[in-house]
Amino acid sequence: MSVPTLTPIPSMSEQRSTVRCASCGATLDDRTARATCPNCGGLLAVEHVAPKAKGAALRALFDERLGAASYRGSAADRSGVWRFRELVLPAARPEEIVSHPEGNTPLVAREAVASFAGLDALRLKHEGHNPSASFKDRGMTAALTQARRIGARAVACASTGNTSASLAAYAAQAGIPAFVLVPEGRVSTGKLAQTLAYGAHMIRLRGDFDDCLELAREASEQLGIYLVNSLNPFRVEGQKTIVLELLQQLGWESPDWIALPAGNLGNTAAFGKALREAHALGLIDRVPRLLAVQAAGAAPFAAGFSDDFATRRRVRAETAATAIRIGDPASWDRAVDAIRFTQGHVVAVSDAEIFAAKRVVDACGVGCEPASAASVAGVRTLVDRGIIGRDERVVSVLTGHLLKDPDAALAARVAGGLGSEEPLTRDEALGHLERVLSSSSSR
Ligand code: F0G
User: Fold this and answer.
1) The whole model's pTM is what?
2) How far is the CA of 324 from the centre of ligand 1 (A)?
3) Is the pLDDT of residue 12 over 70?
């Protein structure tokens, strides 16, 4: 399979980045095939040479690419990830980039959701509008680009569904064989279908996500398969662009809070790194606070927050929000740094609160998967507790699409009387229509 070649990007620098271990400080070349430190197994982080332009000039460069994207910009400019390439992977050559394109997701406001959360206004950054229907595509375009740069023989990940579909899509485009490990019986049929349709090899493991990740790490060590879970530092670089893009959409005016669902903590880590860099480069002059929201049955990070992360916690995870059903988050240290740097907050919400938020997000025609609704439920909880003021400016990130978990949406709506439970005859259907119309006009 051939890889599409992007048009040359004159401003793309040949400047190499450094990959550094956050635990032991070892440094690696930016063409490393390692997803974790070869010395100590610690998490790696990518550091770029600072772009020449800073502050207003850098904002202008990103804005110009956005403006040019629709008609004369390069393929990289059309991507909501590679538009920010100086902060993603500046040394990637145009022909190495594996891009759908992705990103460019909408920032929407719906009064019903704001009033549910107890706020005057609330914006929703909808990452379900990415090509494989979740935010994972932003990290995956960077990880598969890196896989091409190092000549990976195969790529692998453990997944609760979204990562597997995203990996399968980008591996197909790159022409690299892909293996995904998913926990048995816990992944939405839609995501399994998507993953297989894109041509990835799928292994359903007896165990949970944490077991899958442990096996994926072991298999990648033993078989030399490139691991692209969110502990992979290049995934983090791509995921940073959720924050960069939403700041750009707000005219580079920081909101007061950015809320997101938190499971394996890759995204929390990426958001913290994005804000640290955006602030250091003068893209923004004030750092928004991060709110990481966990499901109460899978909340080791929220428990850690309550004692200032004195110890690293692990739990056996249980929640109907399958995407964040994770008990031993891999990016713990990086996420702690993100919460501390942004003076952020971590909160746990019950499944009932998640589904209440989801019903409101769905009913206003926006819709999201259960885990994503945690970012709205968490805001409501903090407004209730007086930690977020009702006039503060908040962005909740909806990480995935409503169709990830259609059964959850269907069950809630049929139970609420919106759908007929059984198929009806023609006459019964007419009677049903009349009843629904007269009850809604009498309201
Ligand atoms: N929201 C959605 C829709 C997700 O799919 C995930 C993670 C998260 C939030 C949590 O993000 O792990 O970076 O804290 N899904 C992974 C997967 C685990 O395999 O698709 P995180």
Assistant:
1) 0.94
2) 6
3) no
